[in-house]
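Re: export button greyed out
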Amino acid sequence: MIRLSLEIGQTQKPEAILFYILAPLSVLAALGMLIVRKAVHSALLLAWVMITLAIFYIALDAAFLGIVQIVVYTGAVMMLFLFILMLVGVDAPDSLTENIKGHRATAIVAALGFGGLLISLIGRATLNHVSVGLAMANEPGNVQGLASLIFTQYVFPFEVISALLITAALGAMVLAHSQKSAGARLSQRALSSVRFRGDSLANAAGLPSSGVFARHNAVDVPALLPDGTPAKNSISGVLTARGDVQDSTQYALGSLPKVDDESGDK
Amino acid sequence: MNSANYLYLSAMLFTIGAVGVVIRRNAIVVFMCIELMLNAANLAFVTFARINGTLDGQIIAFFTMVVAACEVVVGLAIIVTIFRSRRSTSVDDASLLKR
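Workaround output, generated via the alternate export path:
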């Protein structure tokens, strides 16, 4: 009897191989989330962690949850994160310097203690238990089994959580909606007066366009001023913040061709 | 392989998420770390469902996903609002109570 349940408790060999390949990868990706500087890279690493979790769910006989994990998390939630990053995060670099002294070291030591506590507790708690397996519960099919539970025993929590979802959607609409006041926008006349009656006429004719004449005209190459220095205001500020600006001096002519003197003869 | 290995993985991911919440200062990355913690808890639920041989753990994990989606929607709306007024998503800049 005990032998039999022990055999059920042990998972199949392919699953063990899957686990030992994917688990280190997901832990590495999760650690990378903490280390990488750009929020976009963190988002992509988190998407990878979520995909590995979806694979684990399917391996754990939770096929429905695995698919929902991919659709909801890597599909909807991560896309939402990336949209918000595009809205706010591009020119907001994350500084990794510490404001509180010893903050990071303390956090890591506390986390090691916490993780050690969790893992040792799990080790003690499940040592003598054997897993039953979901073969019986999944007998009519995973989706059917879940549905028969959700719509009978868990129908009230299900309704409550749908109310929560609607409330959250309404709340997000209220929070993110901005009422632009009509007077806040400058009129064309006011804009024109700022441009031509301001302190300097440097930008009166418009900002310089990007690119080095006849050599390179991409938007990430700053124009060269007559003295050979790159013109910073010829490229978008977003590109500067992302660090995607190319060095335009490499497209400058190395040596200027000799200009004929006034006499004009060759 | 014992099913408890999934629980160890879940504990590690949860801990990593907790560290991220504490040490990262970009509010969006902090949110992603909270998502990681919720996902780790979900993995534990699904594993316990198999250990116990019932589907209740999977249903709780399903509810957790819905709650996480709500949390992300409201949280990101708050981040957008804060960004609109302060032009920053760093959690250190939103210290109204201190000053």
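Residues 1-84 of chain B form a domain with the Helix Hairpins fold (CATH 1.10.287.3510). The button fix ships in the next patch.
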